[in-house]
């Protein structure tokens, strides 16, 4: 007779097995959750603080520097002292590229070519810059027509010395001192310029002329006149203004050497034109103390040179006389047609055959 069927697992054993499986599942879930939390904590970025240092209640921890890297050294920025800009150049300033400058200062147009040549013509021939200043107009009481004729004669004489004809540019300049200056420069040669101050001619007597109210440079320089008006109607100038103007021109040109007349007080002054002597004194009194200019000043004997031995001849004299002759074609008072006529002109012929520069130590000041 067949036996009855019996179940392989009892209910109690089935319940125990199910509980074990559930426990294992729960443990697995917990392990996965814990791993996820730890991974998030390890991998998440550090939070960036948006609070300003001033608003932070707790000071930040000091930064630790690696021993192999020296800490940065703070170098203080030096405080620079502002450099003042250079003073503006005088309106009369003219540079002289690659050469030295010769400044010459005279009483009248023609004093330069009579007394200081061949020094001036030699300087031009050597390529130096030459700046020539005429303090008075040399008007002789004859008015502006005569003044302009003499100025034209000077420009043509300088053309002859530089070996080239040509037009000249005209500039009306107001110096920093306020003094008006008429400056002319060849269009093709900035090395040369002539400057005209056009103060009244004082006459060989020193008394001036009726046409200009007997105004003279000597009266201005000696304080007998408070001011002096140019013959072209320009603004009057005082003595101090004239002195400052000469100083300004010397500073503007920075000359290596300067030529002018024998000053008052020299043993070579008696018998000279009063205008010559006062211009020489003006230059000496104004510029001798300038260490850059004073040593280079030379004073040329004027009218009294006729009493000294002749010291020019030959080709040197020929060139000097021809330069003078070219000038005289514009001067209605003194005119000579050729070399012979020029040398026969009373007084002028003797002056042309001489040129005597004197250094400060040779002036024999009384």
What does this structure look like?
The radius of gyration is 48 Å and the shape is globular. It starts with 10 loop residues before the first helix and ends in an 8-residue tail after the last strand. The protein is built from 10 helices and 8 strands. Helix content is 34%, strand content 13%. It has one domain: Rossmann fold, CATH 3.40.50. With 366 residues, the protein is α/β, with parallel strands linked by helices. The chain has an 8-stranded mixed sheet with strand order 3-4-5-2-1-6-7-8, sandwiched between helices. A hairpin with a 5-residue loop joins strand 4 and strand 5. Helix 4 packs antiparallel against helix 8 and helix 6 packs across helix 7. The longest helix has 33 residues.
Characteristic terms for this protein:
8 strands; Rossmann fold; 34% helix; disordered N terminus; alpha/beta
Q: Between the first and last Cα atoms, what is the distance in angstroms?
A: 179 Å
User: Mind describing the biggest β-sheet?
Assistant: 8 strands, mixed
Number of strands: 8
H/E element string? HEHHEHEEEHHEHEHHHE
Number of helices: 10
Strand composition percent: 5-15%
Domain unit count:
1
Overall pLDDT, averaged? 85
Would you identify the regions where 5 or more consecutive residues have pLDDT less than 50? 1-18, 20-68
User: What's the CATH topology name?
Assistant: Rossmann fold
In short:
The protein is α/β, with parallel strands linked by helices and 366 residues long.
């Amino acid at each position: 007779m067949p036996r009855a069927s019996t179940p392989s697992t009892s209910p109690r054993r089935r319940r125990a097995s199910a509980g074990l499986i559930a426990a294992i599942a729960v443990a697995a879930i917990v392990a996965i959750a814990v791993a996820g939390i730890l991974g998030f904590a390890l991998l998440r970025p550090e939070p960036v603080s948006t609070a300003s240092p001033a608003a932070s209640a707790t000071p930040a921890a000091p930064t630790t520097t690696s021993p192999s890297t020296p800490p940065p050294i703070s170098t203080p920025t030096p405080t620079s002292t502002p450099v003042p800009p250079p003073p503006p150049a005088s309106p009369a300033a003219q540079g002289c590229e690659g050469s030295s400058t010769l400044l010459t200062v005279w009483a009248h147009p023609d004093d330069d070519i009579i007394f200081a040549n061949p020094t001036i013509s030699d300087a031009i021939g050597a390529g130096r810059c030459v700046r020539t200043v005429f303090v008075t107009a040399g008007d002789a009481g004859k008015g502006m027509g005569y003044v302009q004729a003499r100025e034209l004669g000077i420009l043509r004489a300088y053309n002859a010395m530089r070996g080239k004809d040509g037009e000249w540019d005209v500039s009306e300049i107001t110096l920093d001192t306020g003094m008006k200056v008429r400056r002319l420069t060849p269009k093709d040669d900035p090395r040369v310029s002539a400057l005209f101050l056009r103060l009244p001619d004082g006459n060989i007597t020193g008394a001036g002329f009726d046409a200009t109210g007997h105004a003279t440079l000597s009266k201005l320089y000696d304080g007998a006149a408070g001011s002096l008006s140019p013959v072209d109607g320009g603004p009057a100038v005082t003595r101090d203004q004239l002195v400052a103007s000469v100083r300004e021109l010397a500073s503007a040109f920075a000359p290596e050497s300067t030529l002018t007349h024998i000053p008052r007080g020299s043993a070579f002054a008696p018998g000279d034109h009063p205008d010559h002597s006062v211009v020489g004194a003006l230059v000496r009194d104004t510029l001798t103390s300038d260490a850059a200019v004073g040593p280079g000043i030379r004073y040329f004997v004027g009218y009294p040179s006729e009493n000294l031995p002749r010291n020019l001849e030959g080709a040197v004299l020929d060139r000097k006389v021809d330069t003078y002759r070219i000038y005289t074609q514009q001067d209605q008072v003194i005119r000579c047609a050729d070399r012979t006529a020029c040398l026969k002109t009373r007084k002028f012929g003797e002056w042309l055959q001489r040129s005597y520069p004197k250094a400060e130590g040779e002036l024999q000041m009384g």
